[in-house]
Amino acid sequence: MTDYAAVPRTTEATDAAAVTRVVSQRVSKPAAWWGMIILIASEATLFGAFVGTYYYLRFNTVAWPPDGLPKPDLVAPLILLGVLVLSSLPMQIASRAARAGRLARTRLAIVAALVLQCGYFVYEIHDFRDQLHRFDITRDAYSSIYYTLLGADHGHVLLGILFNFWLLWKLARGFTTYRVNAVQAVTWYWHAVNILTVVVIGTLLSARA
Amino acid sequence: MAIATPPSPAAAETMERLERMWQSRPGVLGWLTTTDHKRIGLLYFWTTLVLFGAGGIEALLIRTQLIAPNQNLVSPSTYDELFTLHGMTMIFFFIIPMTTGAFGNYLLPLMIGARDMAFPRMNALSYWIFLASAIFLYTSLFMGMAPNAGWFDYVPLANRQFNPGSNIDFYCLGIIFNSIASTLTAGQFIVTMFKSRAPGMSFNRMPLFCWAQLAAAFGLLFALPALSADTIFLFLDRNVGTHFFDPSRGGETLLWQHLFWIFGHPEVYILIVPAFGIATSIIPAFTQRRLVAFPLVAIAEILVVFIGFGVWAHHMFATGLPTITLVFFAAATALVVIPSTIQVFAWCMSFVLGLARFKTPLLFIAGFIFMFVTGGLTGIMFVAIPFDQQVTDTYFVVAHFHYIIFGAAVFPIFGGMYYWFPKVTGKLYFELPGQISFWVLFAGTNLLFFPMHIVGLLGMPRRVYTYPSGIGWTAYNLAESIGGYLTLVGILLLLGNLVVSYFRGEPAGPDPWHGPTLEWTISSPPPEYNFAVVPKVTSPYPNWDAADREEDRRHLDEGVLVLQHGHEQPAVTPVDARFAEIVEMPHESPWPVILAFTLSLVFVMLVIHKYGVAGIMGILCLLALVGWHSKEPQES
């Protein structure tokens, strides 16, 4: 510990060059990253309980989906899912660009991700309302878990979209270590939400089998 | 560091500067905006103590109602609310927040050599949400709408059809509300232990108390979502008209029980593992030796919680599950014996191999081991499926889990109160009254809980409002009630001793017990910055490493490793604890209390079914979060 004077004071970095230096010297992930991992672990467990409930109800029921209900559509949800999952790419680009101190590129990548995410979200909400007209959440256990699962997932997408708008607002005033940590953490959030959405849509489509 | 000996002028000047830098705002505002883990720990302590009082009064009312046959001290419906609130209070509002929120908050940073938690504002948020959730739940009692379907709230009894009031809505929302606080605590404990340990404190040097807190935090993190899902479903079933638990529309009543116990059994270990951690702190101090089998005990603490996730269906042996399922879960349950026994033997061997001084804290730990083994033995009996089916829902089960929860969780809490009292207050407690309080409590709790085994075997069901005379239950119930009052006397003696000691006790000095861990290296009560220099750690018992402490003192004189550019703290690599960076910590923020307030408005609106307004309040919460993040660490 004699070389403690060389340990970086990471939170003091407030411009792109200083932040890049701090981030490149990093020997382990910052606390902010760990905080996001904890949030993801907790949310993933909640979705685990939801998905577990879905299959528990399914395997205790004879007809799934129950008689009189159409099987869920296949094509549109899968295309939409592809669009959403694609947004992981610009998020990852944003995260890398932020760590490299490239502000314009970071912002652009976040905007690109937002286009995909908002497109997905708007169409999904439209579809969600449409489906509610066809069968109500109070119809039976299938519709209950169907809408709960889907609604919880949409809520997480919406939160991620708000995160991204907030990031753009923060980045309007340049880089600090704090903001770069935030970009990195939100990127992880999006990767997690995209995986959760794959699981959720996969679960709901499994009713076709 | 240099508190034990008069510091040099240079050191005194450094400490004065740190003191000024870390000082809290005076008065109530200082407490409302505090992010100091010690203050938050104390807030948790006082709040949970009040709630312990509430849960205790509920218990005494129950015991008074049952003191003799055919009593009608309270009405049957009030009785239902009393035992439901008693369970909820003791579990969610006393033991978890006491062991994690109070003990964990106050002691974790001190034990790992940190100046604060990794996320100090989140820590404050967790307390304010906890406080709001407690007020939320107890408001229901005064409105005559307290939860009344037992702490595990089985459907269909909890469905709208059989429980039309708001009672169960308060249950669902109160639990979700409280879970948010516990999740926040758990998450930031984990990150704190990963990132904020003193450089040099690799995982194998982290005190066992911290290992226990880590195990409990992981348990909370992964167990609570199941309960949240369950209570969300129930709330939707009751208020939106979904059919999760309605068999006539494809739902399943057993779904509630599965999800509840997937949470509920890990929960039991979450309650007792931090108490194990308290025991592993007290035993080395009062035997003056390293705890026997340190790595095995650390692994056992983690394993208990881990196995706890695979045993939930043993709470459902009488629900008609297939035999193969029952056998699997019985076998899994039997596994828990192994890590538990490792710990019991390690504690006992430490008593034998060390120089045990039976001061009050160690007495409580000895009592705890006795109670834990007794409760554990009846626990093993439940593994025999036919026996379990016979005694399900009788007082035998009540006896078992009170031995575990009161004996194995609350006894170490009491021991810990005595043990760390000198650290927190700077005063010594009075030893003889302390020992008397132990013996009264030990006699009281055994008199209270042991006869429950017998009446349980005689067939007395749990949760009955009253019972007829002439069936052999009367004398046992009388004894139990007397034991209940005796327990109250013991608790009052304990609290009275601590209160008098606070005003009249001898000064304790920094280290009255020659304790093993870092909190004993600093003055009592600890300064707001905790450690003037980053402590050197080369073993799990740093306070016994005299050379390292000498080096700390030298560092302080020379101004090395002081970190005084602001609220600075080291951050390390998670496993080896190599010094990775110096980070600026947030300090004093009004946002946690604001966010907790807006969040409680959401829950209030939900319980009165104003969902639109609740949504607007949710937007306010998001705005509060934006405000929270408006100031970055380098700007403070």
Folded structure, characterized:
The complex is a heterodimer of chains A (209) and B (636). In chain A, 40% of the residues are buried. The model of chain A has no long low-confidence stretch (mean pLDDT 93). The longest helix of chain A has 32 residues. Chain A is built from seven helices and no strands. With 636 residues, chain B is an all-alpha fold. Chain B has 19 helices and two strands. A two-stranded antiparallel ribbon of chain B has the order 1-2. In chain B, α4 packs across α14.
Summary of the model, kept short:
Chain A has helices at residues 16-25, 31-59, 75-86, 88-99, 103-134, 141-171, 177-205. Chain A has 209 residues and is mostly helical.
**Total number of beta strands of chain B:** 2
Report the end-to-end length of chain A measured between terminal Cα atoms.
Answer: 61 Å
Helix and strand element order of chain B: HHHHHHHHHHHHHHHHHEEHH
Q: Please identify the structural class of chain A as seen in this structure.
A: mainly alpha
Fraction of residues in H or I helices of chain B: 55-70%
Largest sheet of chain B: 2 strands, antiparallel
- The portion of residues forming beta strands of chain A comes to under 5%
Largest sheet of chain A: none
Mean pLDDT score of chain A: 93
Task: Give the distance, in angstroms, between the N- and C-terminal Cα atoms of chain B.
Answer: 27 Å
Mean pLDDT across residues of chain B: 94
The run of helices and strands of chain A is HHHHHHH
Number of helices of chain A: 7
